[in-house]
Amino acid sequence: MGMFSFDTMVVVLGLLACFIMANHVEVGQSSPVERLVGGGARDRDSHVRKLQEFKLNFFQREPTVSLSSSSSPSPSPTPSLPGRRGSGVFPVTAYGADPTGKTDSTDAILEAISDAVSGDGDGFLMEGIRNLGGVRISLEGGIYMISRPIKLPVAGRGNMLISGGTLKASDNFTTDGYLIDLSFSSSPNLDYNYEFITLRDLMLDCNFKGGGIRTIDALRTTIDNCYIAHFATTGILVQGGHETYIRNSFLGQHITAGGDPSERNFTGTAIDLQGNDNAVTDVVIFSAAIGITISGQANMITGVHCYNKAYGFGGTGIHLKVPGITQTRIVNSYFDYTGIVAEDPVQLHVSDCFFLGDAFIVLKSLRGVLNGINIVNNMFSGSNKGIDIVQLDQTNEEFKEIGHVVVDKNNVNGMNLKATVAKGITQVNGTSWTVDFNGILLFPRRIRFVQHALLLTDASNSFPNTVLRNISNNQVVIESDTIVEGSVSVSVDQSPSMSS
Ligand SMILES: *[C@@H]1O[C@H](CO)[C@@H](O)[C@H](O)[C@H]1NC(C)=O
Ligand SMILES: *[C@@H]1O[C@H](CO)[C@@H](O)[C@H](O)[C@H]1NC(C)=O
Ligand SMILES: *[C@@H]1O[C@H](CO)[C@@H](O)[C@H](O)[C@H]1NC(C)=O
Ligand SMILES: *[C@@H]1O[C@H](CO)[C@@H](O)[C@H](O)[C@H]1NC(C)=O
């Protein structure tokens, strides 16, 4: 039943794709004119020439002519190649791609891309990156089966869009490959392979064979409104380069809406950032062993909802593998039964996040370094199992080099509040009293700063001297020279380092 309706849907989508394509031809043909008007830099003769060319193209087309390319598995209904005639739009069906997803469209799509990147473009972006002017590879709302990664045949190209359809890995897709692979094996003279490539409105079904998207040494890449599912390895891998912006997208190994009976078996990583200055914004990760792995600096995570695999089943929401130089900001995100693990973090900011289902943050020691941490203004909700909101994992090594760590102003329901700043008040009747902060303080044996004040029941004649006797073991011991009756307020802070 389910299979039947899916097939039916595919056929309907396929038919739709044909209509869209038919429309698309006109849109594609009109774009050189638009570009001329918009560009304004061309002379009048060329304007007229292009218009004539456009008219010629428009009336020339006959539905019987097929593509000459031997690599195309099916005859194309489109006679001329819109891309080859000067339009910047390259509809893949014009190259023989099969929008029903039944036959292999790899060669056709690669050919469309090859044409798209072969134009002269308009000067350069970064040195050595030819500006393609915004060429568009259109998937025309179709579903295409591919058996090899979609790659550019050359490096040094920029200002290009691939959008508007589904790519699906075939059963023989290379298991270590990525459906869209913005990498190039050898570009010796270039700092970056590609610049300003946009991947938008795509569904990538990896069919449990490989990964979704990979970028290597690409600059200013946008991945927008993509749905990436069934990856065996990684949904999106970013290596080197800068500024890959992943936004407004959905990633999951299995298509589920939570509480999946197979959740325990989820594997793979939804997003792996092995580079600097990337941003993941407004992204949902609905299944994967690890939501986001980060091993570069200055990455920004905001508006991410991780419910990929519960911590209880061995999952992690965000894993920060940047010991000693973390420089990561995680804000305004939602950790749903899965948390954050940060290895030897130095400069990590986590704020305005919601942790649900006993989710928590682990600061994991590799070499015992922990510095520049802000975990502030978050909400934690749990089920009264006594789970600490922030935990230290010191199984490898105790944290020895602890710098400025601020865990404060978090609110908690059904979990144990942990903080580096705490206040206590206790009743006093005697000359010595102790306030124990072990319940709340994050670090054992590490109070760096204490303030206290006495409120006497009868203060008329009394002016006692007090002294701070002991702060070891997170217990503050205060003594007075006379018997004091009243209460004492104590505030402690673990964050200042000794010298500051
Ligand atoms: C992979 O499978 C497709 C059809 O599913 C076929 O067209 C293609 O030749 C196969 N490729 C290899 C390398 O076996
Ligand atoms: C998880 O995987 C194991 C073995 O890999 C299998 O026996 C088990 O049935 C799977 N569980 C679910 C719920 O799919
Ligand atoms: C304080 O201690 C004294 C002597 O131990 C006792 O007499 C007094 O009632 C105590 N005051 C309060 C408020 O408990
Ligand atoms: C502080 O208290 C601990 C026990 O909590 C004790 O071992 C230590 O000797 C005390 N230090 C001083 C200076 O009294």
Automatic annotation (TrEMBL):
<protein>
    <submittedName>
        <fullName>Uncharacterized protein</fullName>
    </submittedName>
</protein>
